[in-house]
Amino acid sequence: MTPTLMAMGSIFFLTASTYIYNDLCDAEMDRHSDVHSDRPISTGEVSEGFAKGFVVVAAVLGLTISSMINSATLILSASYWVMFTLYSYPGVRFKKMFMVKELVIAIAWPMLALVGVYAVNNTFSMPGVFAGMMMGMFSFLGMPALSDSFDEKEDAMYGIKTMAMALTWKRRVELLGAALVLMIVVTTMTYTQLGFNILLPITIVGSSLLILRSVVPIYQEYNMEKALKVRKLTYIYVIVSQVLIVIGSMNLALPF
Fold first, then answer.
1. Rounded to two decimals, what is the model's pTM?
2. What secondary structure letter does DSSP report for 175?
C-alpha cells in the first residue's frame, strides 16, 4: 500500500506543478476565455511570484517522493513532468503544435499507469497499462468536443490550431461518440485475455451507454451550456472507469 500512496502523492505534486506552470504561461490567454477567465493567476488573486515558487516546490516534492520508490518510477515520473512542462514552455510549447497537443495529453495516461504499475510491482504489467491506454484513446478522440471547443477564441488569437478548429461541431461529437463505442468494443473483446473479471465489460458498457445518451442532444448544434454539462458528466465517467477497471482486476468469487 505504501508504494501506491507514494506514487499517488508524487503524481499529485508533479501534476500540480505542471498545471500551475501552464496557468502561468496562459495567464494572458485566459483573460480572453469564456471558461478560464476566472483562474486565480489570470485575475491576479494569486501573484506570479507565489505561483512560480509553488511550481518549483511541487516539482521537487514529486520527484523526491518518486525517487524513494524505485528508479523506474522516478524515470517515468520525471518524463511525465518534463513532457508537460514543455507542453507549456514558450520556447517549445507543444500546446501550439497541431495534433501534438492532443497526442501529448493522450500519452500521459499510459505513462501515469506505468508509474503506478512500476511503483507496485517494479515490472511491466499489461493489465495495469490497459486503463491508461484506454483513457489515452478516449482523451485523444474526446478532446475536440470536451475541451478545445471552449478555447477556440483565445486559441485563434494566439496562433494555436487544435483538432477542434479543424473540425465541425458534428465531427467533434462523432469522435466523442466513437471513443465511447471503442471503450465498449475493446473492453468487451479483451477483458478475458487481460485477466479481468466479467464485471468490467458489464459496468463499462453500462456507463458508456449512459454517456452516449447524454451526447445525443448536443449533436445537432453547439450549445456551450449543454456541452459543459456533458463535459462534467464525462469527467465523472473517466474517474469511474478507472475505479471499474480496478474492480474488474480483482479476483472475485462471482455467481456468474
1. 0.89
2. H
Residues near 28 by beta carbon (within 8 Å), at least 6 away in sequence: 42
CATH fourth-level superfamily of 1-97: UbiA prenyltransferase (1.10.357.140)
- Alpha-carbon distance 94 to 14, whole Å? 18
Closest C-alpha among 64, 106, 57, 108 to residue 82: 108
Cα dihedral sign for 209, 228, 240, 128? Answer: positive
Question: pLDDT value at position 184?
Answer: 96
Helix runs in the chain, H state only: 2-25, 27-30, 40-43, 48-67, 71-88, 100-121, 126-146, 152-157, 163-166, 169-190, 199-215, 224-248
CA 185 to chain centre: 21
Each residue of 66-100: pLDDT tens digit? 999 999 999 999 999 999 999 999 999 999 999 99
Cα separation, 177 vs 236, in Å, equals 16
Annotated domain spans of the chain? 1-97, 125-256
